[in-house]
Amino acid sequence: MRALIAAVIGLAAALALILTVTAIGAPTGSTSPKPLLTTVPRHP
To answer: Which parts of this chain are annotated as the region Disordered (predicted)?
Structure first.
């Protein structure tokens, strides 16, 4: 019975987090036009 209660509480917490993020919405901003470097450039 305790496991069922813990599962319900966890599911409710996850649902509340999802609804909060949905209500706040995506952050405003723009992406950088410069590409990201994935490797360290070699020095000659």
So the answer is: 25-44
Residue 40 tokens read as: 């360290």
Distance, CA of 7 to CA of 20 (rounded, Å):
20
Amino acid at 37: L
pLDDT digits (tens, 9 = 90+) for 7-41: 999 999 999 999 998 888 877 777 777 777 777 77
**Long-range contacts: 30-39, Cβ < 8 Å, 24+?**
none
